[in-house]
Amino acid sequence: MRQEERKRKSRQSIFMAAFQEFGTLGYENVNIEKICKVHGISKGMMYHYFSNKDDLFLACVQKVIEDLTSFVQKQLPEIENKDVSLSIRDFILLRQTYFDHHLQQKAIMETAMVRPPAHLKVQIHDLRKPLIEINHKFLKEQLKKINLRKEIDEEKAIRYIETLDIFFQSILREFVSDRTQNMNTLIQGVNDLLDLFLFGILE
């Protein structure tokens, strides 16, 4: 086995272990020693790639964001040419679609976004920039399809949509934890809110 392939497999095994631990226990309850002991990873190999827990956690957050960004980019051609409200709705739901199949990554992302370690907030914000750029690019293209009210410029409209997005994500998290709700009802509620929002910014 070539050296590069060994390195790739070593990093992959560390990521899989770290995803499981951070995704199950959160940031505060994880330490390097436990990851190594539980998953049979030598400390030498761990510290060869990651200097400490913060370094490992940030690498996990970066990996989640990279994988999510790649997923979103692949799905964009299917949604970007729909009606504006449907395109934005489907764009908002893309993350939930991805995380439905990657629960540990979802937990890591929620830790990074909702309750990040205070000393890592700046680094996490920087890691999110590629995803933020994709969001802004997509929303700008959608806003070109409509005429905004004179007092609503593009940047303000994007901020409004991002605020709605945060609200939608909280609703989706509640839905995931309470399966008595009907997904079709939830999606219809998202549609209604988007229609109301667009009515408020359209000329």
TrEMBL record:
One of the GO BP terms on file: regulation of DNA-templated transcription
SUPFAM superfamilies cross-referenced by the UniProt entry: Homeodomain-like, Tetracyclin repressor-like, C-terminal domain
Domain HTH tetR-type: 8-68
Keyword annotations from UniProtKB, A to Z: DNA-binding
Signal peptide (residue range): none
Start-end of DNA-binding region: 31-50
Pfam families, per the entry: TetR_N
Keyword DNA-binding attributed: yes
GO molecular function annotation: DNA binding
Full protein name: TetR/AcrR family transcriptional regulator
